Amino acid sequence: MILLDFIKIDLSLALLLFIPGYSILIALTRNKNPLELLGTIIVSTVMSLTIVNFVLMLIDKIGFDLSPVNIVLSISTISALSLFFYGALQNKKPIKKPIKKQNWLPFLIITLFAIFLRLIYLIPKVIPHTTDLGHHMYWVNYIIKFQELPIYGTPDVIIGEHIIFGALSILTGIGIFTALPLMLLFIINIFSLLAIFLLTEELASLIFKKKQSFFIALVSLLSIGVLYSIASPQASYINGGVIGNLMGGMFIPTIFYLFIKAFKNRDPILASIGIFLIGNLIYTHHLSAFIFIYSLLGFLVIFLISFLLIKFYFKKNNLNLNPFLKTFFNLNTFLTGILILIWIFIIRIPSYLNVTAIDSAVGDPSKATRFGLTINNIINSTGPWRFFYSLIGIAFLTFLFWKIIQKKTRIEKIYQIEKIKLINFIIFFSLLIGWFGTIFIMSYKPNLLKVDIISSRIVNYLTYSSAILAALGVYAILCPIFSKNFSPLIKNTLFSLIFIPAIISGLFDVSENYPETNTAFDKTIQTFKGSQYLAEKTTEKQKILRDHVYLTGDTWIKNFLMRGYEEPISRTFSKKYIDPIRDRETCTRDMIDIPESSIGKDCFKKTGVKFIILRDNYDTLQFEKSDNFSKIFSTNEAVIFQRNYE
After folding, report:
1. Buried/exposed code over 72-95 (b: 16+ C-beta within 10 A; e: otherwise)
2. 211 located within any domain
3. How far apart are CA 526 and CA 423, in angstroms?
């Protein structure tokens, strides 16, 4: 039976996370797929997520249930049709590409170590219990239970965050109260690391030779995969269930990778695939889509300024935009954009596309948490080592920009720079500076860009561009030394000065957070037992109050009840009840703090609360002493009281 379960999981993952994307990718590119093995795997996975989302939105719109049969038939049909067209349109033998002779052992070691660090952090947390994940899994559970997509009625959640979890659970028969959500988020996180590796190598190859590009990509993988490996938005986000951030971390570098690859190969198909993935990003996470659009605009601004400066100030008349324009502005990209617009306005409008939601994100910052972070906050969020070397990377890029314009061939020899077109360097320079600079400004001075979003959420996206810039910073220091006949002592000393601080700083979070006891695991199980009791012994009309302050895994109670996203109601932290601008409801607090007072009794009457679930020995004494309440359930962690009188 266990073997069959594993086979079912493997087949379901293959169907949802690889087969449809791979089938369409090879059908579109046919004999000219330039992505190679790793690129094909990453792009196929990201495309599969996109296709699954769009297909399930479509069959739900038509009115079909999201049953296992309908999911398998729809995905399999699209995959089979793609493979049929791939075979039917073959008119010549596949092009045999020379295999790159590259030492992949360092890549494997870094990747495996990155996986290991995340596993040792996540294994004690295998039973999901965090607040955000509990909220998200309600909508996943809705998809599983009713086999249809929910209508949210709130801009805070988006359908693309939940479809893949619901589809995987429906196909495997494995529910959400297992390691399944964490397993899927873990896969997404690892693929985001590999996407950064691919993007870095592709960007670096615009100007550097292959061997040097590969080294820079390895350092970027080390920077984002091993260093600060459980800091946000890494493994801690997997456990926390910040689904959209993790998916955005995979989609954004993959889209940039496809755009760079499309430009290098003059391939409108790859550009169209990138635009297609932007469509899914819009349905997956509004913050990631928002930051991607701002980053893309930042790139375009830097690109245009650099292009005009070089062409007209430095009189470089050999600059030509036609290859760039033909790659990104053509019939293929136009039709892909039209398809996305049709989907948005006819098939399903993203929940955040309304005037109120947009106004809340764009404009002058409205709260203290949105006024921007200090430089120290940004450094700590990005990682001191990574931030320091990213600044060196920016200085290095600026230095190269000046020297290449002046045609200083000595610099090209030192840093193993290929004979490049100026347009390549402009794109290389503009993307990294525009990407990093835009997010930095959004985090530090959001009012300059009219951004009204919590600054601490934005700064997490600085991780990805800073990992690439830090790799360039390391290369800028090491390359001149290692390319000359310096003594081994000098080389080893310099190498140690760079990477020993990286190990100390970058692995500090691991030492702080591991090992962890099973206390949270045990507490979660007890809360789940109390939740199951409430689901079995209460009716939909009987109101329940939960305690979010002390009870572990309390947001998961709604997943046992499935009586609405706002059920049961919750007592939250004291600061949430204080608002100088408007009055806040306080009944959820008063019914636990002062249940026997006139205020508490009025609140019970107004809300109709019949049952209260609390953490044992935390605000339980007043209920145990009262004749108005009876303890009907108790474990070492969770207790449930029933109100005796109406």
Report:
1. bebbeebbeebbebbeeeeeeeee
2. yes
3. 61
Q: Determine contact, residues 271/332, Cβ cutoff 8 Å.
A: yes
CB 465 within 8 A of CB 435: yes
pLDDT along the chain (646 residues), means of 10: 79 94 90 85 96 95 94 95 77 57 86 92 83 92 94 82 95 91 94 96 91 94 92 82 90 96 92 95 90 94 89 72 87 93 89 62 62 89 93 92 74 74 87 95 87 83 94 91 77 85 82 60 88 93 93 93 92 83 84 92 92 92 90 92 84
Residue 435 domain flag: yes
Cα 36 from Cα 203, distance rounded (Å): 16
Is residue 494 domain-shared with residue 603, that is, in the same domain? no
Angle at 575 between CA 569 and CA 579, to 5 degrees: 95
Question: Cβ neighbours of residue 185 under 8 Å, at least 6 residues apart?
Answer: 237, 238, 241, 243, 246
Q: Are residues 498 and 535 in the same domain?
A: no
Q: Which residues touch 444 (CB under 8 Å, ≥6 apart)?
A: 372, 373, 375, 378
496-501 long-range contacts, CB within 8 A, separation 24+: 498/389, 498/474, 501/385
Write the DSSP symbol of residue 515: S
One domain, residues 504 and 524: no
For residue 189, what are its two tokens? 């996180």
Domain finish residue from 450, 475, 510: 510
Shared domain check, 588 and 543:
yes
Are both 467 and 605 inside the same structural domain? no
Distance CA 353, CA 155 (A): 8
* Domain count within the chain: 2
Total residues found in the chain within this entry: 646
Chain centroid to CA 167: how far?
A: 19
What pTM, to 2 d.p., does this model score?
0.92
Residue 110 placed within a domain: no
User: What is the edge-to-edge ordering of all strands in the sheet holding 543-547?
Assistant: 569-571, 543-547, 609-615, 638-643, 629-634
Cβ atoms of residues 328 and 271 within 8 Å:
yes
- Please, what is the Cα angle at 254 between 38 and 374, to 5 degrees? 130
What span, in angstroms and rounded, lies between the C-alpha atoms of 342 and 336? 10
Clarify whether residues 380 and 414 are in a common domain: yes
pLDDT of residue 361: 59
- Give a three-class secondary structure readout of 332-383: HHHHHHHHHHHHHHHHCCCCCCCHHHHHHHECCCCCHHHCCCCHHHHHHHHC
Same domain (yes/no): 497, 366:
yes
Residue 553 main-chain phi, psi, to 5 deg = 70, 25
Closest by CA to 235, choosing from 131, 110, 126, is: 126
C-alpha span between 395 and 377 (Å, rounded): 22
Quote the domain boundaries for residue 176: 2-91+126-510
Residues 533 and 609 in one domain: yes
Q: Is 507 helix (H, G, I), strand (E, B) or coil?
A: coil
Domain stops at, among 443, 477, 510: 510
Assess if residue 557 is contained within a domain: yes
